[in-house]
Specification:
4 copies of one chain form a homotetramer. With 347 residues, chain A is α/β, with parallel strands linked by helices. The first copy, chain A, has a domain of 219 residues: Dihydrodipicolinate Reductase, domain 2. Helix content of chain A is 32%, strand content 27%. The first copy, chain A, is built from 9 helices and 15 strands. Chain A has a 9-stranded mixed sheet. In chain A, strands 3-2-1-4-5-6 form a 6-stranded parallel sheet, with helices on both faces. The first copy, chain A, is globular, with a radius of gyration of 22 Å. The interface between A and B is large, with 50 and 50 residues. Strand 14 of chain A pairs antiparallel with strand 14 of chain C, so a sheet runs across the interface.
């Protein structure tokens, strides 16, 4: 297939990774790099001297050679930039979260549908091989009924000054939950604290309730003694621990509780079943490469992207609900549902 | 000092441990063992043939040789048995939780004061050397301001059929929090699920807010892929990880965030400080031995017990608030405060 | 079956464990406990008041009620006591190592054969469920050709003052190797040092070469920063790590090297195969209980004991070779072979 | 200081790392890259288009702009290339091991002295911050008398086809030992096996004896179930574990054995002292950057390099002794001593 001609916009912390990975993909060609900061632009230009630079976004979307734009700018600018790019007929890859409100995320989705262009939010964890492996276990119903999911994503740093830990780290865990469970929680409640910067929550404890009965808890923190990325998924048949910092990122525990029939007088008899523990071999391809490959294939019309606008919008809805719960001192609040008219629902 | 003559009542799961440890203490002598179940009684009698048995509690408290009673019966019976023992002039050690309601816990406290007898709830973790070591760090303010505490106490089993995971495991963590922070949370919110037995919550996620600003989160579960006992205490100066399943149960991280003065235009500059990690040597004495020794010394009038009625009553109040929050679908609820007339407040 | 009437001789560090475990076995009854030290005897008598005591070994073997003797005395006394017991018509269980020289071990074996009595050396690790599980993997040839075995058995303490680390810890590892590989090494070489007590080696590095080509290395030490019990068995098809201090004592790695046919000009092409890692469920029965049960069944004539005199004698031969190599400054020395006339060879 | 103009020769597995790191050093400038394989040359040229290439070594040493040559070619070519470069007046950095025989290593040293040029073997681990930290502990005698060192360096892969595991991995561990102990072992004995490729030992167990009494053991393997880089250094006062794969690469155990004065009748009384465990903060600078910076400073005449020709030659002598012991079926052999006339001895 013809390489997709992509411009990368926003060369701060994450943008250079997009450039590096796209550079190595056969199906992509970086045709422009763009940042308002001349130093960031110059630094990357030194590494990729053959790629033309642009200091203004207008220049990028006016460039006819550019088929697609990859946006890695601050969250507050996603909506405006993505909308302009779609209106200019470009395909758009936009870093997570898709937009800073679900209403704007929906608007972007509507515009992509109208313009028949690919719009894909950058939820990289959906392309992480261990996450995919767990998704397959869940599709096969290997774990039985899912009782609960417990997630910890904590380490020391890296504080953001513009968004809370829920907008930053939460976007990862909520996208994973949405992908694994194919579901949006009905209600969430949350507690957080701004320990370091006033008004910027840097720790949060979030509870989520799904219609199926599944519960989830997410602990997220930029303030923790040591890095911890541990997710436990407990089902009626098996249990899984996923830890992307481990050499064995997925561990499957063939353990559970066996409930014998209730005895007379309401006595229950339980036994615990503990079996083998298996660490399946997990592919080590870089998730970002798989993600951008998926984007290129979607642009060429071969596939639906795995990371859909519907999913990206749902993630924003969950974050909004978390923020609402925080405003109401931790009261449980309902997560807004996708409206019937949302383009993705029409799929 | 003269050995305290103690009767142990309730020989189910935990009672035999009380007998074993009291048997080895120089300052205690087990003068009676008591259980309604003749098999439980006979089994222990075989191990300690010289200790007289009793099948009725009345027999125990009528025995003049008995100075103190250690109660390890189901939670629902604590109030009645402890009250009767106090009224009979016995000192009372009662396994956690002190009673099945805070009102009853207060009544027991009032009766102990009236009768001038020691009443001590069995919060064994208060005597665990790693917990004590952390308490000392906190007293010295070595950690700085306490931002948050995150606790996980999960494993596969052991389901209780009469009480929820909050009454069972929660009693441990809430007693540790009360001891460390010398404070009772103002509000709690909780989410739980009864996965195995109808009506018996076996997993719970509990958020706690303290007046000082400190947050805490406790995850408790009888359903988990592997045993996890991990508590992180994050302060402005240092962070501590406490894990009672580890060979290094306390680890002190000399790490934190340094916030430089706000710059012009509201820009903050943060740096991360990571220093040495120290695993202090921790004494390995069995907590139960330290606890029962403390009880004997309290009976002899030498000391106030570390595990006070005030603390035990506060723990019950926290559990009650958790249960109320669960009844209200996870709404944050206030924890009841100790009334001024509570005997312990008078200390 | 009728319980075997056993006397336990030697109540130092290990003997009380024998008494405890035999006490709980249905097929055994402890009919005598014996030690020359009245304090040791009295201490155990308090725990088991119904078991008669004896201060002299003669008394024990003169007692007609005693069918079998379990010997847990210092190594230097094994030969004399076991021989006297066999001559008195008793079955004999003797703690490892069987005797302080292979010649004496052979003599004991010959006497047992002559007297038609069971003689069983106490190599407890042969009854450890993880060791048994690895043995089964090896019997099935699941690992392919065994390239090498690397064993570390180190911790801080417990120094012996009468025997070297090779006689103490080595007896464990050499018994495991003999059991797993069903083979005795042809040659051993060793290096050791007496760091703390003059003349008592407390660390040793031992290399072993088997006729099959398999190599083994054993590191043993009473002086180590932390307890380490790690054995790696590397085969052409799979690799196994056995660690008896871990919750997952056996881990099977489906990994290896694939050698493609030699290319022209002697170029080889290798690829590395890494597959799943499995931690099989391992039974948690106490090895000592399985071992003593096996002894009782052997006494009753139902089975050959797993821990044979032939194995126990081979272990002593390996230790003797280690000591010879140490005397010759680490030169490789041959391990003496069992003589054709050894009773066990006749099996 | 003026940047040192360096040519990098050999662009196989390691050479590109030299180019990358030199490229980022302010005190170095890569002025040539050289390889006989046009593909290797072209691949690197694409990444560094401004650096001139050379296909012949002669071209490199004839280039007057080249002040120093960094050699990363197969071991068998080190001698010839380094000698020619020195004779051409260039300073020389040569990857470990310095040469394929100690005689040739000495010849190179003599030539460097004669030509007044820096010759530095690339023993990167001497620049690894955890190794340096342990070296400082040893210089301060913080560990007391060093009883023994136990090293494991094992993983699955990467087989070399031209040299044995001792020449490859051994060069690392022997350089660390030489650096830490400032000493060369008197005798070594070794056992190895060629499991995969005929004639290429891929596992080896090496014992080393130092004149001070210190013992060392090194296990090295390209065939192991999982990566293990664990070194324990046991001293009379403290013990250290160094593991360069860990987040806490150095751990200091304040533990040991206390020997009380011998009692009457030759009884010794030992007690075990276990204190705190400290994981000091360790700098995370890339060792290769520190090493090449050290080379540049040596070229400019500011410092003696840490990795000296004397050390590099000793490492080759130890490897030669290992190979001799292997030829003699594991017999202990003496390590050849540096001759008085060796230039480095004159320092």
């Amino acid at each position: 297939m013809q390489p997709v001609h992509i411009a990368v916009v926003g060369l701060g912390y994450w943008g250079p990774n997009l450039v590096r990975v796209l550079h190595e993909l056969e199906d992509a060609e970086v045709v422009r790099i763009c940042d308002r900061d001349p130093r960031a632009l110059a630094a990357l230009h030194r590494r990729y001297p053959s790629v033309p630079t642009a200091r203004s976004f207008e220049e990028v979307i006016a460039d006819e050679e550019v088929e697609a734009v990859a946006i890695a700018t601050p969250v507050g600018t996603h909506f405006e930039l993505a909308l302009a790019a779609l209106k200019a007929g470009k395909h758009v890859f936009v870093e997570k979260p898709l937009a800073d409100s679900s209403e704007r995320a929906e608007q972007l989705g509507a515009e992509a549908t109208r313009a028949s262009r690919v719009l894909m939010p950058g939820h990289t964890f959906l392309y992480s091989p261990p996450v995919t492996l767990v998704r397959e276990l869940l599709l096969e119903e290997a774990l039985g009924e899912i009782y609960f999911v417990s997630m910890s994503r904590v380490n020391l740093g890296i504080h953001q000054s513009d968004v809370s830990v829920a907008w930053d780290l939460g976007a990862h865990d909520f996208s994973i939950l949405r992908y694994w469970l194919d579901d949006v929680p009905e209600r969430v409640s949350a507690l957080s604290r701004s320990c370091i910067l006033p008004g910027v929550a840097d720790i949060a404890f979030v509870n989520l309730q799904f219609g199926s009965g599944t519960l989830a808890h997410v602990e997220m923190s930029w303030l923790a003694p040591s890095k911890l990325r541990r997710t436990a998924i407990v089902g009626s048949e098996k249990m899984v621990v996923y830890d992307d910092t481990s050499n064995e990122p997925v561990r499957i525990f063939d353990s559970g509780v066996v409930l014998r029939d209730p005895q007379t007088f309401g006595e229950y008899r339980l036994t615990y079943r503990t079996g083998d523990i298996v660490s399946p071999r997990v592919d080590t391809t870089e998730p970002l490469a798989l993600e951008l490959q998926n984007f290129c294939e979607a642009v060429r019309g071969h596939v639906e992207p795995r990371s859909t606008v519907a999913l990206g919008t749902d993630v924003v809805r969950i974050i909004e609900a978390v923020e609402r719960s925080l405003d109401e001192q931790g009261a449980p609040v309902a997560v807004e549902r996708a409206r019937a008219s949302t383009p993705e629902s029409a799929d």
